[in-house]
DNA sequence: TTGTATGCGTTATCAG
DNA sequence: CTGATAACGCATACAA
């Protein structure tokens, strides 16, 4: 409670006050394996309490060669919808009493590379890549992978969430399956004419979702031509623009499949502006099920992705090192049908 | 580019390769004040590059006595609307190339106290308190303030955002003014009968907003009785419940003033459920102007709070130490009138 | 089990 | 301006 005479109390202070050596104090307070005689431990703990001692984790990191916190690399602090991936990881970390250092790559591959370098300086236990959305084309380029590999070679752990194909432990959130499952259910509802608001052309996440969607449809004999795929930004404004483009093309469309809820919301806004009746004239579906959109109208059909579980899985991957090559944990979301895609009458 | 033979390259490695001393290498790479002969500096920089050297910031923190990063303490990772305060700070930090460590107090005062303790362990340059929303009653209790004061005595800086009255540097975001400005404009539009969805009874932020609102109205001869104030949670569900309560009371109300946009959205959802015409039968206004709600309908009248500026101001406060007592930077938002509060016909 | 001594990577001090 | 050398706070091999 009371603080040392000066500022911070050090381990030496505690040891002195408890009448033991630095080593014993260290072991009693932080050292995990070694045992300390109970009464001594008590004395140390008491002394620490009285001095208001808290370990200097920087010094700890120096001595141990690596810190204990986790660095979370996101592509951007999106003001619209803060990455659900980040939320998932933050939650899981909270449960583990883990510190998380968040840093943004500002949607720039070069910046991402620089950021990883400064992350290397921190020497965190692990770097978690929270991709998943607003991924710029080629964001995970060679330079970045190199830098991350460097970090890994130095003893750090790297886990990618929702970005398959990287040479690191990966938590796959089932983007392809999400698209496929959604397509299947929409087909069951009677939909046949789709336009896809596909997000950035080179973004892996977007690509997988679209691919799954089209494949599942193809299996049912429904082709979604390339001319029905409109690329756009990953966010609300992207959807807004793409919906406008869709209107312009006048292709027969009964349902707009948006690569993400954010895109879907933008599209809805645009369609409304055009005076369209939703979902009467046009149905809309997205992917993500972001909670903040619970109250949009019409209520949005979407695929709930397991972000909380993904965060958990990522942290577990970090906690259980395994050097037998990159592991991949596969999760899967589930479709949530709502008002924006009502069942169509039998054809 | 190439890494040292083993793992991490150390300052000693760089010095050796450049043929200079540790000290010189350190000064060339990090030390700010001292000067180094240009050609030597070049040699060092080159060596560092070739070795892929990155400073060990933990060691740096130990040597310097304090780290360079900033800790951001939020009340909770709200899945609905990630605290705009946090976004503001993150943005500003990004611009400064500063690392930010985010940690949540899980809306619990006890947890907050523990969290500050573990923050003390990290020895960050500063701790920024991102209050502002979902503040539990008495979240900033004495124990917490004590712990923060301890941290400050150890040489750390503390800045509170949107939580006035704390013995630390503060960025005031103008909660009272927000309520007042909004009330004034609504009165100008012709509104007279209000019910207030007031948020948690003891939350300072909520209290200030409501107080400003009622005062400005009182100045214009409009009284909002205590029976027109309904307390509720700070979030969407709080608004949902409070709107239900409002309906039950059947008090004549033409406009629902929600303490926050989140509450407003919840209220709108509840009113819709009750089959009400918005804004024809009931107008709704909030405070915050969260971007994610840009597309709710009817478009929400609200007060845009200067979160980005607040983040900037907080970081500036951190950057310019000043021990002449707590400073306070006062910012102010501005009202944004939208569809949810149409002008009423002359009375 | 406990204490001693040494190392971790940087910065800071103080001579040269 | 540069280079030895001593902190910084903690962990840990090694000896007791």
TrEMBL record, chains A, B:
HTH lacI-type domain residues: 9-64
Protein name, entry field: LacI family transcriptional regulator
InterPro entries: HTH_LacI (IPR000843), Lambda_DNA-bd_dom_sf (IPR010982), Peripla_BP/Lac1_sug-bd_dom (IPR001761), Peripla_BP_I (IPR028082)
Presence of the UniProt keyword GTP-binding in the record: no
PROSITE patterns assigned: HTH_LACI_1 (PS00356), HTH_LACI_2 (PS50932)
Hydrolase found in the keyword field: no
Native species: Nocardiopsis aegyptia
GO molecular function, one term: DNA-binding transcription factor activity
Keywords attached to this entry: DNA-binding, Transcription, Transcription regulation
Gene3D superfamilies the record matches: 3.40.50.2300, lambda repressor-like DNA-binding domains
